[in-house]
Protein backbone atom coordinates (compact mmCIF):
# COMPACT_ATOMS: atom_id res chain seq x y z
CA UNK A 1 0.00 0.00 0.00
CA UNK A 2 1.44 3.36 -0.99
CA UNK A 3 1.93 6.07 1.59
CA UNK A 4 -0.45 9.04 1.18
CA UNK A 5 1.19 12.14 -0.21
CA UNK A 6 0.63 14.08 3.02
CA UNK A 7 0.14 12.81 6.59
CA UNK A 8 -1.37 15.53 8.79
CA UNK A 9 -1.81 15.19 12.55
CA UNK A 10 -4.53 17.13 14.35
CA UNK A 11 -4.96 17.99 18.02
CA UNK A 12 -6.94 20.47 20.10
CA UNK A 13 -6.49 21.85 23.62
CA UNK A 14 -8.75 24.76 24.52
CA UNK A 15 -9.28 26.94 27.54
CA UNK A 16 -10.20 30.60 27.94
CA UNK A 17 -8.73 31.54 31.32
CA UNK A 18 -10.12 34.26 33.56
CA UNK A 19 -7.44 35.34 36.04
CA UNK A 20 -10.10 36.74 38.37
CA UNK A 21 -12.09 33.52 38.67
CA UNK A 22 -11.32 31.52 41.83
CA UNK A 23 -12.20 28.15 40.31
CA UNK A 24 -9.35 26.33 38.49
CA UNK A 25 -9.74 24.11 35.46
CA UNK A 26 -8.89 20.55 36.51
CA UNK A 27 -8.34 17.46 34.40
CA UNK A 28 -11.89 16.38 35.26
CA UNK A 29 -13.22 19.60 33.71
CA UNK A 30 -11.54 18.72 30.40
CA UNK A 31 -12.80 15.14 30.57
CA UNK A 32 -16.47 15.98 31.14
CA UNK A 33 -19.10 16.94 28.57
CA UNK A 34 -20.35 20.51 29.02
CA UNK A 35 -20.91 22.97 26.16
CA UNK A 36 -18.62 20.80 24.03
CA UNK A 37 -17.83 17.08 24.10
CA UNK A 38 -15.39 15.89 26.75
CA UNK A 39 -11.83 14.81 26.06
CA UNK A 40 -11.65 12.75 22.86
CA UNK A 41 -8.85 10.54 21.55
CA UNK A 42 -7.97 9.10 18.15
CA UNK A 43 -10.82 8.41 15.71
CA UNK A 44 -13.48 9.73 18.08
CA UNK A 45 -12.06 13.24 17.48
CA UNK A 46 -13.42 12.90 13.95
CA UNK A 47 -16.60 11.01 14.79
CA UNK A 48 -17.76 13.16 17.71
CA UNK A 49 -17.05 16.57 16.18
CA UNK A 50 -18.56 15.90 12.78
CA UNK A 51 -21.25 18.44 11.93
CA UNK A 52 -20.45 20.67 14.92
CA UNK A 53 -19.35 24.27 14.52
CA UNK A 54 -15.78 23.69 15.70
CA UNK A 55 -12.50 24.63 14.03
CA UNK A 56 -11.29 21.03 14.19
CA UNK A 57 -14.47 19.84 12.45
CA UNK A 58 -14.02 22.39 9.68
CA UNK A 59 -10.38 21.40 9.16
CA UNK A 60 -11.26 17.70 9.05
CA UNK A 61 -14.02 18.28 6.49
CA UNK A 62 -11.64 20.22 4.23
CA UNK A 63 -8.88 17.64 4.61
CA UNK A 64 -11.19 14.71 3.90
CA UNK A 65 -11.97 16.22 0.50
CA UNK A 66 -8.32 15.79 -0.52
CA UNK A 67 -7.54 12.21 -1.53
CA UNK A 68 -3.82 12.82 -1.06
CA UNK A 69 -4.18 13.56 2.68
CA UNK A 70 -4.24 11.14 5.60
CA UNK A 71 -5.62 12.61 8.84
CA UNK A 72 -4.05 11.44 12.09
CA UNK A 73 -6.29 12.55 14.99
CA UNK A 74 -4.45 12.65 18.31
CA UNK A 75 -6.62 14.31 20.97
CA UNK A 76 -9.10 17.16 21.47
CA UNK A 77 -10.04 18.65 24.84
CA UNK A 78 -11.86 21.72 26.10
CA UNK A 79 -13.07 22.97 29.48
CA UNK A 80 -15.58 25.68 30.38
CA UNK A 81 -13.81 29.03 30.93
CA UNK A 82 -12.67 29.46 34.52
CA UNK A 83 -9.60 30.28 36.57
CA UNK A 84 -6.14 29.01 35.56
CA UNK A 85 -5.63 25.46 34.33
CA UNK A 86 -3.97 23.29 36.96
CA UNK A 87 -0.45 22.09 36.24
CA UNK A 88 -1.72 18.53 36.55
CA UNK A 89 -4.33 19.06 33.81
CA UNK A 90 -1.99 20.95 31.49
CA UNK A 91 0.94 18.57 31.92
CA UNK A 92 -1.26 15.48 31.51
CA UNK A 93 -2.98 16.64 28.32
CA UNK A 94 0.19 18.14 26.81
CA UNK A 95 2.10 14.91 27.51
CA UNK A 96 -0.61 12.87 25.83
CA UNK A 97 -0.52 15.11 22.75
CA UNK A 98 3.28 14.77 22.55
CA UNK A 99 3.12 10.99 22.99
CA UNK A 100 0.47 10.75 20.28
CA UNK A 101 2.54 12.82 17.88
CA UNK A 102 5.57 10.61 18.46
CA UNK A 103 3.50 7.45 18.00
CA UNK A 104 2.00 8.74 14.76
CA UNK A 105 5.24 8.15 12.88
CA UNK A 106 6.44 10.48 10.13
CA UNK A 107 4.09 13.44 9.67
CA UNK A 108 4.20 16.25 7.13
CA UNK A 109 2.19 18.82 9.03
CA UNK A 110 0.21 19.54 12.19
CA UNK A 111 -3.07 21.36 12.77
CA UNK A 112 -3.74 22.66 16.29
CA UNK A 113 -7.21 23.81 17.39
CA UNK A 114 -6.32 26.15 20.28
CA UNK A 115 -7.96 29.09 22.01
CA UNK A 116 -5.18 31.63 22.52
CA UNK A 117 -6.01 32.80 26.07
CA UNK A 118 -4.97 29.81 28.19
CA UNK A 119 -3.21 30.52 31.49
CA UNK A 120 -1.95 27.71 33.70
CA UNK A 121 -0.58 27.64 37.21
CA UNK A 122 2.94 27.77 35.76
CA UNK A 123 2.49 29.41 32.33
CA UNK A 124 0.91 32.76 31.52
CA UNK A 125 0.94 31.66 27.87
CA UNK A 126 -0.38 28.11 27.78
CA UNK A 127 -0.49 27.90 23.99
CA UNK A 128 3.07 29.21 23.68
CA UNK A 129 4.24 26.65 26.21
CA UNK A 130 2.50 23.83 24.33
CA UNK A 131 4.00 24.93 21.02
CA UNK A 132 7.45 25.05 22.60
CA UNK A 133 7.04 21.45 23.78
CA UNK A 134 5.89 20.37 20.32
CA UNK A 135 8.83 22.10 18.63
CA UNK A 136 11.24 20.47 21.05
CA UNK A 137 9.73 17.09 20.18
CA UNK A 138 9.22 17.44 16.42
CA UNK A 139 11.81 20.01 15.45
CA UNK A 140 11.79 23.57 14.09
CA UNK A 141 10.77 22.87 10.51
CA UNK A 142 7.46 21.02 10.73
CA UNK A 143 4.62 23.14 9.27
CA UNK A 144 2.16 23.94 12.08
CA UNK A 145 -1.14 25.70 11.32
CA UNK A 146 -3.10 26.99 14.31
CA UNK A 147 -6.68 28.18 14.68
CA UNK A 148 -7.40 30.62 17.53
CA UNK A 149 -10.46 32.21 19.08
CA UNK A 150 -11.28 35.84 18.32
CA UNK A 151 -10.56 36.50 22.03
CA UNK A 152 -6.98 35.26 21.85
CA UNK A 153 -4.24 37.17 23.66
CA UNK A 154 -1.56 36.36 21.10
CA UNK A 155 2.06 36.17 22.25
CA UNK A 156 5.26 36.52 20.26
CA UNK A 157 5.96 32.88 21.10
CA UNK A 158 2.71 31.71 19.47
CA UNK A 159 3.60 33.60 16.30
CA UNK A 160 7.24 32.49 16.24
CA UNK A 161 6.60 28.80 16.86
CA UNK A 162 3.70 28.34 14.44
CA UNK A 163 3.85 28.55 10.66
CA UNK A 164 0.46 30.23 10.37
CA UNK A 165 -2.41 31.34 12.60
CA UNK A 166 -6.04 31.92 11.63
CA UNK A 167 -8.63 33.50 13.93
CA UNK A 168 -12.41 33.58 14.12
CA UNK A 169 -13.78 36.72 12.48
CA UNK A 170 -17.18 36.82 14.16
CA UNK A 171 -18.48 37.41 17.69
CA UNK A 172 -20.84 35.59 18.23
CA UNK A 173 -18.50 32.92 16.87
CA UNK A 174 -20.45 31.67 13.86
CA UNK A 175 -17.35 30.90 11.78
CA UNK A 176 -15.44 28.47 13.99
CA UNK A 177 -15.67 25.59 11.51
CA UNK A 178 -14.98 27.99 8.65
CA UNK A 179 -11.78 29.10 10.39
CA UNK A 180 -10.57 25.53 10.66
CA UNK A 181 -11.35 25.02 6.98
CA UNK A 182 -9.29 28.14 6.14
CA UNK A 183 -6.32 26.56 7.89
CA UNK A 184 -6.23 23.53 5.60
CA UNK A 185 -5.06 25.15 2.33
CA UNK A 186 -2.61 27.27 4.33
CA UNK A 187 -1.07 24.18 5.91
CA UNK A 188 -1.05 22.33 2.60
CA UNK A 189 0.86 25.17 0.95
CA UNK A 190 3.35 25.16 3.83
CA UNK A 191 3.84 21.40 3.53
CA UNK A 192 4.65 21.95 -0.14
CA UNK A 193 7.27 24.55 0.69
CA UNK A 194 5.58 27.93 1.20
CA UNK A 195 7.01 30.00 4.03
CA UNK A 196 5.11 33.30 4.19
CA UNK A 197 6.60 36.39 5.77
CA UNK A 198 5.02 37.38 9.10
CA UNK A 199 4.16 40.72 10.69
CA UNK A 200 2.66 41.04 14.16
CA UNK A 201 1.71 43.95 16.41
CA UNK A 202 -0.09 44.39 19.71
CA UNK A 203 -2.68 47.15 20.01
CA UNK A 204 -1.99 49.35 23.09
CA UNK A 205 -5.51 49.41 24.55
CA UNK A 206 -8.07 46.93 25.85
CA UNK A 207 -11.59 46.46 24.53
CA UNK A 208 -14.27 45.31 26.99
CA UNK A 209 -15.96 42.16 25.75
CA UNK A 210 -19.44 43.65 25.53
CA UNK A 211 -18.03 46.12 22.96
CA UNK A 212 -16.42 43.41 20.80
CA UNK A 213 -19.57 42.26 18.98
CA UNK A 214 -18.80 42.11 15.26
CA UNK A 215 -22.45 42.69 14.29
CA UNK A 216 -22.06 46.38 15.08
CA UNK A 217 -19.58 49.22 14.87
CA UNK A 218 -16.74 49.68 15.45
CA UNK A 219 -15.80 45.97 15.48
CA UNK A 220 -17.78 45.02 12.37
CA UNK A 221 -16.05 47.54 10.07
CA UNK A 222 -12.67 46.69 11.60
CA UNK A 223 -13.06 43.01 10.79
CA UNK A 224 -14.24 43.85 7.28
CA UNK A 225 -11.08 45.93 6.82
CA UNK A 226 -8.89 43.16 8.23
CA UNK A 227 -10.38 40.58 5.87
CA UNK A 228 -9.92 42.96 2.94
CA UNK A 229 -6.21 43.22 3.71
CA UNK A 230 -5.71 39.54 4.56
CA UNK A 231 -5.10 40.33 8.22
CA UNK A 232 -5.88 38.15 11.25
CA UNK A 233 -7.33 40.31 14.04
CA UNK A 234 -7.61 39.26 17.69
CA UNK A 235 -9.87 41.39 19.86
CA UNK A 236 -8.25 40.02 23.03
CA UNK A 237 -9.65 38.51 26.22
CA UNK A 238 -9.78 41.04 29.05
CA UNK A 239 -10.31 38.40 31.72
CA UNK A 240 -6.72 37.26 31.32
CA UNK A 241 -4.21 39.21 33.39
CA UNK A 242 -0.95 38.70 31.48
CA UNK A 243 1.62 40.75 29.59
CA UNK A 244 0.08 39.38 26.38
CA UNK A 245 -3.43 40.67 27.13
CA UNK A 246 -4.58 43.05 24.39
CA UNK A 247 -5.93 43.07 20.88
CA UNK A 248 -3.37 42.22 18.21
CA UNK A 249 -2.93 42.21 14.45
CA UNK A 250 -1.17 39.52 12.42
CA UNK A 251 -0.50 39.21 8.70
CA UNK A 252 1.20 36.79 6.32
CA UNK A 253 2.37 37.79 2.86
CA UNK A 254 4.83 36.97 0.10
CA UNK A 255 7.09 39.84 1.17
CA UNK A 256 7.87 41.41 4.52
CA UNK A 257 6.92 44.81 3.15
CA UNK A 258 3.43 43.59 2.25
CA UNK A 259 2.91 41.97 5.66
CA UNK A 260 4.14 45.06 7.53
CA UNK A 261 1.91 47.35 5.46
CA UNK A 262 -1.20 45.23 6.09
CA UNK A 263 -0.60 45.17 9.85
CA UNK A 264 0.01 48.94 9.93
CA UNK A 265 -3.21 49.62 8.02
CA UNK A 266 -5.42 47.69 10.44
CA UNK A 267 -3.53 48.82 13.56
CA UNK A 268 -3.93 52.47 12.54
CA UNK A 269 -7.64 51.94 11.93
CA UNK A 270 -8.05 50.45 15.41
CA UNK A 271 -6.25 53.36 17.03
CA UNK A 272 -8.48 55.79 15.16
CA UNK A 273 -11.68 54.30 16.62
CA UNK A 274 -10.41 53.76 20.17
CA UNK A 275 -12.78 56.41 21.59
CA UNK A 276 -15.75 54.48 20.18
CA UNK A 277 -15.23 51.60 22.61
CA UNK A 278 -17.03 53.44 25.36
CA UNK A 279 -19.92 52.93 27.69
CA UNK A 280 -20.42 50.93 30.84
CA UNK A 281 -23.84 49.27 30.99
CA UNK A 282 -26.35 50.71 33.49
CA UNK A 283 -27.32 49.03 36.79
CA UNK A 284 -29.95 46.27 36.73
CA UNK A 285 -32.78 48.17 38.42
CA UNK A 286 -32.65 50.85 35.73
CA UNK A 287 -32.58 48.26 32.97
CA UNK A 288 -35.52 46.27 34.37
CA UNK A 289 -37.61 49.46 34.61
CA UNK A 290 -36.71 50.25 31.00
CA UNK A 291 -37.73 46.77 29.90
CA UNK A 292 -41.06 46.91 31.75
CA UNK A 293 -41.86 50.26 30.12
CA UNK A 294 -41.67 48.73 26.65
CA UNK A 295 -44.85 47.51 24.93
CA UNK A 296 -46.00 43.96 25.51
CA UNK A 297 -45.54 41.55 22.64
CA UNK A 298 -42.11 40.27 21.73
CA UNK A 299 -39.62 39.80 24.58
CA UNK A 300 -37.01 42.23 25.83
CA UNK A 301 -33.60 40.60 26.35
CA UNK A 302 -31.46 41.69 29.30
CA UNK A 303 -27.85 40.49 29.23
CA UNK A 304 -25.92 40.17 32.50
CA UNK A 305 -22.60 40.76 30.74
CA UNK A 306 -20.20 40.52 33.70
CA UNK A 307 -21.37 37.17 35.08
CA UNK A 308 -20.88 35.25 31.86
CA UNK A 309 -19.68 31.68 32.53
CA UNK A 310 -18.45 31.65 28.93
CA UNK A 311 -15.84 34.18 30.08
CA UNK A 312 -15.07 32.53 33.41
CA UNK A 313 -17.93 34.02 35.43
CA UNK A 314 -19.46 32.07 38.29
CA UNK A 315 -22.94 32.33 36.74
CA UNK A 316 -24.39 32.71 40.22
CA UNK A 317 -24.47 36.45 41.01
CA UNK A 318 -27.93 37.49 42.15
CA UNK A 319 -28.03 41.21 41.36
CA UNK A 320 -30.19 40.86 38.26
CA UNK A 321 -32.54 38.42 39.99
CA UNK A 322 -32.96 40.88 42.87
CA UNK A 323 -33.71 43.69 40.44
CA UNK A 324 -36.35 41.65 38.60
CA UNK A 325 -38.08 40.91 41.90
CA UNK A 326 -37.75 44.36 43.48
CA UNK A 327 -38.98 46.12 40.33
CA UNK A 328 -41.99 43.83 40.03
CA UNK A 329 -41.04 42.35 36.66
CA UNK A 330 -43.80 40.36 34.97
CA UNK A 331 -43.38 37.37 32.69
CA UNK A 332 -39.64 37.22 33.37
CA UNK A 333 -37.29 34.29 32.72
CA UNK A 334 -33.73 34.21 34.08
CA UNK A 335 -31.10 31.70 33.00
CA UNK A 336 -28.88 30.09 33.85
CA UNK A 337 -28.08 30.35 37.57
CA UNK A 338 -25.53 27.83 38.79
CA UNK A 339 -26.43 26.25 42.13
CA UNK A 340 -25.97 22.49 42.36
CA UNK A 341 -27.43 22.27 45.88
CA UNK A 342 -30.68 23.99 44.94
CA UNK A 343 -30.95 21.93 41.75
CA UNK A 344 -30.58 18.74 43.79
CA UNK A 345 -33.15 19.89 46.35
CA UNK A 346 -35.61 20.63 43.55
CA UNK A 347 -35.17 17.13 42.15
CA UNK A 348 -35.54 15.63 45.61
CA UNK A 349 -38.85 17.41 46.29
CA UNK A 350 -40.27 17.11 42.76
CA UNK A 351 -42.43 19.25 40.49
CA UNK A 352 -44.98 21.27 42.43
CA UNK A 353 -42.96 21.19 45.62
CA UNK A 354 -41.84 24.28 47.52
CA UNK A 355 -38.31 25.11 48.60
CA UNK A 356 -37.11 27.64 51.15
CA UNK A 357 -33.40 28.01 50.42
CA UNK A 358 -30.62 30.47 49.78
CA UNK A 359 -30.13 30.58 46.00
CA UNK A 360 -26.71 31.18 44.40
CA UNK A 361 -24.84 34.42 45.30
CA UNK A 362 -21.62 32.75 46.42
CA UNK A 363 -19.37 34.34 43.82
CA UNK A 364 -17.43 36.46 46.31
CA UNK A 365 -18.00 39.51 44.10
CA UNK A 366 -18.50 42.84 45.81
CA UNK A 367 -22.08 43.27 47.01
CA UNK A 368 -23.18 39.80 45.96
CA UNK A 369 -25.05 37.50 48.36
CA UNK A 370 -27.41 34.54 48.18
CA UNK A 371 -31.03 35.29 47.30
CA UNK A 372 -33.11 34.25 50.29
CA UNK A 373 -36.57 33.12 49.30
CA UNK A 374 -39.17 30.48 48.69
CA UNK A 375 -39.50 28.83 45.31
CA UNK A 376 -41.98 26.52 43.63
CA UNK A 377 -40.54 23.80 41.42
CA UNK A 378 -42.16 24.26 38.00
CA UNK A 379 -40.12 21.81 35.89
CA UNK A 380 -37.17 19.43 36.09
CA UNK A 381 -34.63 18.20 33.55
CA UNK A 382 -31.70 15.80 33.38
CA UNK A 383 -29.73 18.71 31.93
CA UNK A 384 -29.47 17.70 28.28
CA UNK A 385 -29.80 20.87 26.19
CA UNK A 386 -30.21 20.50 22.44
CA UNK A 387 -28.77 23.53 20.67
CA UNK A 388 -31.01 25.26 18.14
CA UNK A 389 -28.86 28.16 17.00
CA UNK A 390 -26.12 28.38 14.39
CA UNK A 391 -23.19 28.91 16.75
CA UNK A 392 -23.39 25.57 18.56
CA UNK A 393 -25.55 23.91 15.94
CA UNK A 394 -25.17 20.17 15.71
CA UNK A 395 -24.19 19.82 19.35
CA UNK A 396 -25.73 19.72 22.77
CA UNK A 397 -24.87 20.89 26.27
CA UNK A 398 -24.88 18.98 29.53
CA UNK A 399 -25.83 21.18 32.49
CA UNK A 400 -26.59 18.35 34.91
CA UNK A 401 -29.82 17.95 36.90
CA UNK A 402 -31.58 21.28 36.52
CA UNK A 403 -34.81 22.96 37.50
CA UNK A 404 -37.09 25.87 36.67
CA UNK A 405 -38.19 27.65 39.82
CA UNK A 406 -40.84 30.32 40.37
CA UNK A 407 -40.00 32.96 42.97
CA UNK A 408 -42.76 33.08 45.60
CA UNK A 409 -43.93 35.71 48.11
CA UNK A 410 -43.61 38.59 45.65
CA UNK A 411 -45.83 40.51 43.27
CA UNK A 412 -43.22 39.89 40.58
CA UNK A 413 -43.59 36.98 38.16
CA UNK A 414 -40.07 35.59 37.81
CA UNK A 415 -38.94 32.10 36.79
CA UNK A 416 -35.31 31.00 37.17
CA UNK A 417 -33.48 28.14 35.46
CA UNK A 418 -30.97 26.59 37.90
CA UNK A 419 -28.23 24.17 36.82
CA UNK A 420 -25.80 21.73 38.39
CA UNK A 421 -23.05 22.44 35.82
CA UNK A 422 -22.00 26.01 35.05
CA UNK A 423 -22.87 26.90 31.46
CA UNK A 424 -23.44 30.02 29.35
CA UNK A 425 -27.05 30.64 28.33
CA UNK A 426 -26.47 31.33 24.64
CA UNK A 427 -29.26 29.30 23.08
CA UNK A 428 -33.03 29.07 23.43
CA UNK A 429 -32.63 25.37 24.17
CA UNK A 430 -31.62 26.14 27.76
CA UNK A 431 -35.18 27.28 28.44
CA UNK A 432 -36.93 24.68 26.31
CA UNK A 433 -35.16 21.94 28.26
CA UNK A 434 -37.15 23.19 31.26
CA UNK A 435 -40.49 23.27 29.50
CA UNK A 436 -40.82 26.94 28.63
CA UNK A 437 -40.59 28.90 25.39
CA UNK A 438 -38.55 32.10 25.72
CA UNK A 439 -40.56 33.67 22.88
CA UNK A 440 -43.57 33.74 25.22
CA UNK A 441 -41.81 35.70 27.98
CA UNK A 442 -41.96 39.44 28.46
CA UNK A 443 -38.37 39.63 29.72
CA UNK A 444 -35.62 37.09 29.11
CA UNK A 445 -32.63 37.72 31.38
CA UNK A 446 -29.46 35.94 30.27
CA UNK A 447 -26.02 35.40 31.77
CA UNK A 448 -24.02 36.00 28.59
CA UNK A 449 -22.04 38.85 27.05
CA UNK A 450 -22.49 38.60 23.26
CA UNK A 451 -22.90 34.96 22.16
CA UNK A 452 -26.60 35.01 23.09
CA UNK A 453 -27.33 37.50 20.30
CA UNK A 454 -27.34 34.98 17.46
CA UNK A 455 -30.15 32.93 19.03
CA UNK A 456 -32.11 35.52 21.01
CA UNK A 457 -31.85 38.84 19.19
CA UNK A 458 -34.07 37.80 16.24
CA UNK A 459 -37.01 37.19 18.58
CA UNK A 460 -36.57 40.37 20.66
CA UNK A 461 -37.96 43.86 20.40
CA UNK A 462 -34.87 45.13 22.21
CA UNK A 463 -31.59 43.92 23.72
CA UNK A 464 -30.42 45.68 26.87
CA UNK A 465 -27.19 45.11 28.78
CA UNK A 466 -26.63 45.57 32.47
CA UNK A 467 -23.70 45.69 34.82
CA UNK A 468 -23.81 43.47 37.88
CA UNK A 469 -20.32 42.98 39.39
CA UNK A 470 -18.84 39.72 38.12
CA UNK A 471 -15.60 38.12 37.01
CA UNK A 472 -15.73 39.72 33.55
CA UNK A 473 -15.50 43.46 34.16
CA UNK A 474 -17.18 45.85 31.75
CA UNK A 475 -15.35 48.85 33.25
CA UNK A 476 -11.78 47.67 32.82
CA UNK A 477 -10.33 50.45 34.94
CA UNK A 478 -11.94 48.67 37.90
CA UNK A 479 -10.43 45.25 37.15
CA UNK A 480 -7.60 44.29 39.57
CA UNK A 481 -4.91 43.85 36.92
CA UNK A 482 -1.33 43.22 38.05
CA UNK A 483 0.49 41.84 35.02
CA UNK A 484 -0.50 43.84 31.93
CA UNK A 485 2.17 45.46 29.79
CA UNK A 486 3.23 48.82 31.11
CA UNK A 487 1.12 51.60 29.62
CA UNK A 488 -1.67 49.51 28.09
CA UNK A 489 -4.75 51.72 28.13
CA UNK A 490 -7.77 50.27 29.91
CA UNK A 491 -10.46 52.62 28.65
CA UNK A 492 -11.25 55.49 26.31
CA UNK A 493 -10.51 58.00 29.09
CA UNK A 494 -6.85 57.14 28.52
CA UNK A 495 -6.25 55.45 31.89
CA UNK A 496 -3.13 53.33 31.49
CA UNK A 497 -1.84 50.37 33.43
CA UNK A 498 1.11 51.10 35.70
CA UNK A 499 2.99 48.42 37.54
CA UNK A 500 2.99 48.75 41.31
Question: Overview of this structure, please?
Answer:
- With 500 residues, the chain is of the alpha/beta class.
- It has two domains: 6-276, Response regulator (Rossmann fold, 3-Layer(aba) Sandwich); 284-474, no CATH class.
- Helix content is 27%, strand content 22%.
- The protein has 14 helices and 19 strands.
- It has an eight-stranded mixed beta sheet with strand order 12-13-16-17-11-18-10-19.
- Helix 4 (87-103) runs parallel beside helix 5 (126-138).
- The longest helix is centred in the N-terminal third of the chain and has 17 residues, at 87-103.
- The mean pLDDT is 95.
Brief description of this entry?
This protein has 500 residues and is of the alpha/beta class.
Comma- or semicolon-separated keywords:
about 500 residues, alpha/beta, Rossmann fold, 2 domains, 8-stranded mixed beta sheet, 14 helices, about 20% strand
Q: Could you state the CATH homologous superfamily of the largest domain?
A: Response regulator
Number of separate strands: 19
Cα separation of the termini: 64 Å
CATH A-level architecture of the largest domain: 3-Layer(aba) Sandwich
Topology:
Blueprint: E1 6-14, H1 27-31, E2 40-41, H2 44-49, H3 55-64, E3 69-78, H4 87-103, E4 109-114, H5 126-138, E5 144-148, H6 156-161, E6 164-167, H7 176-191, E7 197-202, H8 219-228, E8 231-234, E9 248-253, H9 256-272, H10 284-292, E10 300-304, H11 319-326, E11 332-338, H12 340-349, E12 354-359, E13 371-381, E14 384-386, E15 396-398, E16 402-407, E17 414-419, H13 429-432, E18 443-446, H14 453-456, E19 462-466
Helix pairs in contact: 3-7, 4-5
